[in-house]
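Hello again,

I reread your note about wanting to compare the complex against the isolated chains. To keep things tidy I'm splitting this into two emails, and this first one only covers the full assembly. Below are the input lines as submitted, including protein chains and any nucleic acid or small-molecule components. They are followed by the predicted structure of everything together. The single-chain runs will come separately.
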Amino acid sequence: MSRCTGRPRRWIAAGLVLAAACGERPVAELPAARLRPWVVATAVDLAGVNELVAPNVRFTAEVLDLLFLGLVEEQPDFAEHPPSFAPALAERWEVSADGRAMTFHLRADARWSDGHPVTARDVEFSLRAQRAAEVAWPYADSKRVVAALEVLDERTVRFLLEAPGPYRLVDVNDGHVLPAHAWGDIPFAEWRGAANRFRERLATSGPYRLAAWQPGLELELEPNPTYAGPGPAPDRSVIFRVTPDPAALVERLLAGEFDFADGLSPLDAERVTRAARLRLLASAARQYDCIAWNLRRPPFDDPEIRRALTLAIDRQQLVDALWRGRARVAAGPVPSDVWARDPELAPWPYAPAEARAILARRGFADRDGDGIVERQGRPFAFELTTNSTNRLRADAAVLIQEQLLRVGVRATPRLLEINTLTELNLAGEFDATLMGWGIDTTLDFRPYFHSHEAAEGWNFIGYASAEVDRALDDARAAPTALATREPLVRLQRLLHVEQPYTFLWEPPRLAAVRADIAGAEITPLSAFASLPRWRAPARP
Amino acid sequence: MTAFVARRVVAGLLLLWLVLTATFALLHLLPGGPGALSEDPRVPASQRLRVRAALGLDRPLAERYVRYLAATARGDWGISFARQRPVAELVAEAAPHTVTLAGAALGLEFLLGVPLGALAARRAGRALDHAVRALALALWSMPAFWLGLALLLALAVEWPLLPAGGIASPAAASWPVLARLGDALAHLALPALALGLPAAAATARFARAVLLESASEPFALAGRARGLRPTALFLRHTLRPAGAPLVELAGLSTAGLLSGSLTVEVVFSRPGLGRLAYDALESRDYPVLLAVTAAVAAAVVLAGLAADLAQAALDPRSRTRERHD
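Full-complex prediction:
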């Protein structure tokens, strides 16, 4: 389940508007000076250059953010308030008083990397492609709120919406603007086999363009000569070198082969902190790991039992032992650095004595003296499944097994291949599963906890609570993002009491960068957003 | 000989069909669907169904199987779910890297394994024999990925003598031909060692056993009785008869080296068939997995056929023996 992270939508920093002097400059007049490219390690290759048909993996999404712009850019400033948005291809936008129309004004200097201007036709083409049944973009549902798109002139588009809502700007902005002049004559029905044509005719609007791509080996992006902002222009190319083996990747990083690597484990992070030539970067990840209990199977259908299990698990010890203290103990589905987090919510404490007392009250006792409590002759024993490729979760399962044994509960860890785990979970064939979720900008927890999603959605634990349903529905119906706070706080408090999940930790995102590179940072939205701002130290 | 070849070709084709059918069935029995179907809870079930239809996964399994066999017979392996490119292109790009690696490892296996085995056989029961056998056992018991990581740490990180991964240096394209060749060989060295050394160890033990066996054959004893010198006796009456089983071993080794390349290519970041299969398995990219399996199975069948033919040429009795079997 680790791959089920929310899609980071936008990446760039606020207010970094560059002078647009290079907008008209033809490609041939680029300065010839070539600085040594940055070399970045990646465990996976780019899945494709067209996001509508390429699988949604984080690396691909974050690289495509460097190649293409959207209308606006989501900012990573969601700790205190809902995220703000900065201009991207649109220099400004207006929302009608009734919230049913959004008008975007494109930048006059916006150009594709082949020199063609970015126009309203590109926006219209992108929306048509996003909604095309033949293209089958997985996120097409976000565009159902758009009733119509009006092209007012070459640089102005108006989205007419079915209904107002708290995250309509997010929905309208979802997906990049694609080049109609380059890809428009490829029939939608052929898009799922047209990767070569997309690449051959690639025109980009972001700070980079594709220089070279040897599939499975490396990908080189070079500064886009027509890029006119809103962010700074990069001063050099960047090479992403595919290194699928995590152990080899870290060794090569420490040996000085890479300038940057993302997705480090806590153990790798420890080694990085000891390497003089590297600097550790850490950021929140807008994720949480948890144990999901199968509420269709007793005794997990009893909230008191679930609370007892939470009390019996020392989550701080897990964070200290597995994350070397770099993660935070989770208290609910809204991570602690997101604006909608209930400020009064604190994680349940580690209280094994209280857990034992609850279990005893619910009829569990160790009558045969084997160390495992029973009820009606049945020992309290279950399987704790998790994905086999996540070493940290596998270790956590073993530690949890040992902690639960102290209160007389036998958990047997079982490691499964990720696809198998997902299928068993969705089929409801599990007792408890250790997994992680990523959350996205909209903070819509309906898929996980609403009773309507229990039949065939992602609420595979079978959770059903009228009060939680009401809180989720209220959040979705709120007129503004800020107005979702109250139902979201209500939701968090209900989940805290009911514990359909035992919330374990909020993992950080860990990366390493060469210590002398200035301007490098990572955010929950992207590891690469700061790449155009990276600068090497001046040589004496 | 023609009938022998014909029988072998038919058997090879039958084996290929069986492998493809079994792979097709196993892949579709595996839990979970292609990664392209997206496991993001934000994607509603209705949209996932649309993606399934776009990938052709909404058709009955039997229909997909028949279409797949027909397309494979035409040489059309379809479009990759994960990369949206013709699978034949992906395989054609990756295959040379795997063939190069497996070829280098095979060369290493026999150039190192057979002389070591011969050395041990000639010094059977002495210190050198024990040393070779112990070394071979140690190398043989090392998994290729582990040996690969150890070699990488030692020879690319701790003492950076060889490149740690990839197939060429970034600037190699602009170098003279010889420099490019040297660079490619340098990049090949560590993965070939990781893959070839355990195989060489196994071959050394096999060669030793085969050579000792042929040394005790009546014709070898007769040669000794005729007063042949030890070197001539070894070359003519021991090594030469052992050629046929060693050729057969080469055919079998090819299969092992091709499958072993999977982990080695991951460790050394080589974009070969193993890496292609590894990525495709993670994302359940059925067309790519089926094509890689077909390509590897075909290579194994061909290698087996070549070994059989070579063995038949070296030892005509094997043809007759097969007919009687």
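For quick reference: Chain A touches chain B through 64 residues (CB under 8 Å).

B.
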